[in-house]
Amino acid sequence: MRRSPLDRHSATPAELQDRLRAEDGGRPFLVLRDGDDRQRLVDLDAVAERLTLGRSTAADVTLAWDARVSRVHAALERVGSAWAIVDDGLSRNGTWVNGERVAGRRLLRDGDAIRVGDTVLAFRAASRSSETVATRTAAGSPPAADVLTPAQRRVLLALCRPFRESDVASPASNREIAQELHVSVDAVKTTLRALFDLFGIEDLPQNRKRAALALQAIRVGVVVRRDL
User: 9, 3, 1, 5: which is closest to 145 by C-alpha?
Assistant: First the structure.
């Protein structure tokens, strides 16, 4: 099975930037990696009501490289302002969302992983609010994960730890990070300043920098929740 298209290790810096721009656009989209392991983004707002997935060249999203995908495998349908994945039994190997097989129709939530054959597509919903979009647009483009030093990555993971289960959380304090990593608070502050600069958020108000850094690192895949 292919890696998740949101896996930070499978994305180039340019691909991460493309994904961030798509998220900042506030429109729902799919992320997948094709047979050449290149990122593809599919804008769902460009589709009227229904989009088909399959190995056939007639499908709206053609997955010709995956022999385990049926010619007409599944579809995405607009349901009001939301989207649903639909598999009415036409596919040979089934359609799965977050490891659960779809029987008929299932509404999608932001971050859901859709598996058809050996291909995984990630569903990204529209941005929740104009404030979120404005914050992230001001934040600029993130660095690739391999740009971070080991010390920066340790501090970033500790900062994001409270977001393990939900985006509705507060980042760890400097003291909490220092205690977890057995370093001084001043060392944490110095590393965070470098991270603010790397992520392009040094100009945000001081009381927004920490949450913006944590959420942006998670949303673009520099930090994934299984690491927390």
Answer: 9
Helices and strands counted in the chain (H then E) = 6, 11
Residue among 20, 22, 2 nearest 144 (CA): 20
Cross-strand partners of 110: none
In whole angstroms, what is the distance from residue 85 CA to residue 133 CA? 26
Q: Exposed, middle or buried: residue 87 (CB in 10 Å: 0-12, 13-18, 19+)?
A: buried
Q: What single-letter DSSP state applies at residue 72?
A: S
Q: pLDDT tens, 58-86?
A: 999 999 999 999 999 999 998 877 899 99
Q: How far apart, in whole angstroms, are the C-alpha atoms of residue 125 and residue 127?
A: 6
Burial of 67 (0-12, 13-18, 19+ CB in 10 A): exposed
Question: Helices in 78-205 by DSSP H: which ranges?
Answer: 130-139, 150-160, 174-181, 185-198
Task: Return d(Cα 4, Cα 9) in angstroms, integer.
Answer: 10
Specify the DSSP element, H or E, that contains 21: helix 13-24
How far apart CA 104 and CA 27 sit, in angstroms, is 25
pLDDT digits (tens, 9 = 90+) for 166-223: 767 789 999 999 999 999 999 999 999 989 888 878 778 887 888 888 888 887 778 8
Whether the predicted pLDDT of 56 surpasses 90: yes
| Rounded to 5°, angle at Cα 95 from 89 and 98 | 145
